[in-house]
Design brief:
2 copies of one chain form a homodimer. Chain A has 12 helices and 11 strands. By secondary structure, chain A is of the alpha/beta class. In chain A, α8 packs parallel to α9. The longest helix of chain A has 16 residues. Chains A and B meet through α3, α8 and α12 of A and α3, α8 and α12 of B.
């Protein structure tokens, strides 16, 4: 139990390769899509009563399921309200080479810092049928409890490749014929005018500083999301979602 | 100072009609777009040094500007990091009748609960040039510190009309010839197929429960945002932003 709570710390996740999954929705998707990676599932009596089908699925998948009290669950969880259920799972080991074959839509986040933003982008990538989410080094850990929570189960639907070097990643995308589209507020090309029919990757920068000019310049195209009102910008998760949906709609005509 | 901190409470905002604006970006937009509503501005020496142009603008606009210490600002603020500057302002008094004339794009949120979602929708409405954000009763207070923070200044760019009755609002929109589009995951019409050329309002429901069927049925059209992957849904702010951008792009051909 103390070991579970410790997974809120990045160093412990890194050392053990494990992470914490909280709440019925995320636990359900974990069991459905990544059962072999499950180490343990912890359920309160209330969680078991409310989500009997998740409890059954965990057993059917051969997971170790432990009955715990509300107090024990609260002590293990990072969330204020883990809703009766948490799991510990092994992080997937997935590299860039594993996700690029045949990829048509990707998103690359450079030095993203806010966990809610990263989780929301993973959810948006999943919703739009993207092939993977790529995250550079010096970003928030994609398997932190807050990122998992805002991902709402999408971590188990779409591969997330982390700790990437941005230049090497752009080069690898280029070699595969995947066009890289940097989003920048002052870019000359507006999103509705961008050609989104072929394989491409959206490249978005840090919340406060955006993309470094050198990174944007290394992309094939710079694209601006038009701002029609007086807002200075969109937040990172909104920007990524708007771009990804533009791609998903363009591909389907 | 104690009175400022009390503005974190909804009852105090309601009784006084005042609200708290935190951080240089929001204070700058407040002064630029709504200077007559400013009651007081509080600035630390560091905030004054870093944002001299906001300090000057506040003086030029005739605002009462008070120099305070970091400790005093921290005690007044709701944010962990108010970044050297907060303001107290009078809430705008704006009703439905004030925003419907000539409106072409609106968003109506029904019983939205998460402050980050509401603020992000206000920011998205601003970015897409929407004419107003409408919020029903039993929603989070649009002028709470968290909503103001995630709005990133957009509260001062786009009118926000709160405490609305949903049925009366749908009727008022209908009378003005503004089509109402309910977003529902199982709606028969997909977003890319919706006709978004005329005046319309997006209608979105609560984060957990979506729109009640009766509200969706009272709208002119039910529209689904397609999910191409395995995600169950989008979060409210993402859904609203994707719909609003679809409208903004459609209007401009």
């Amino acid at each position: 139990m103390r070991g579970v709570a410790a997974l809120a710390r990045r160093s412990v996740r890194s050392d053990t390769g494990r992470f914490l999954v909280e709440g019925p929705q995320a636990v359900r998707e974990l069991i459905r899509y990544a059962a072999p990676s499950v180490v343990d599932v912890y359920v309160t009596p209330d969680g078991r009563a409310r989500h009997a089908e998740i409890y059954s699925a965990a057993y059917a998948a051969g997971c170790f399921v432990h009955d715990v009290t509300d107090e024990v669950l609260a002590a293990m969880a990072d969330a204020d309200t883990p809703q009766g259920m948490v799991a510990v799972a092994q992080q997937p080991v997935v590299g860039l080479a594993d996700v690029l074959d045949g990829a048509r839509l990707l998103v690359l986040l450079h030095e993203v810092r806010d966990p809610g933003n990263l989780g929301t982008v993973i959810r948006g990538a999943d919703a739009t049928g993207a092939d993977a989410v790529l995250v550079t080094a010096n970003s928030v850990d994609a398997f932190s409890p807050k990122v998992i929570r805002s991902g709402a189960g999408s971590h188990f639907h779409v591969p997330v490749v982390s700790r990437l070097d941005v230049e090497a990643t752009l080069a690898a995308l280029g070699e595969r014929g995947i066009r890289t589209l940097a989003t920048q507020g002052d870019a000359p090309l507006a999103l509705p005018d961008a050609d989104l029919t072929g394989p491409h990757a959206w490249v978005l920068g840090n919340e406060a500083h955006g993309l470094p000019d050198a990174v944007a310049a290394a992309c094939d195209e710079r694209v601006a999301i038009p701002i029609y009102g007086a807002a200075e910008s969109l937040n990172l998760a909104m920007a990524a979602t708007v771009c990804l949906y533009a791609s998903a709609f363009a591909r389907r005509g």
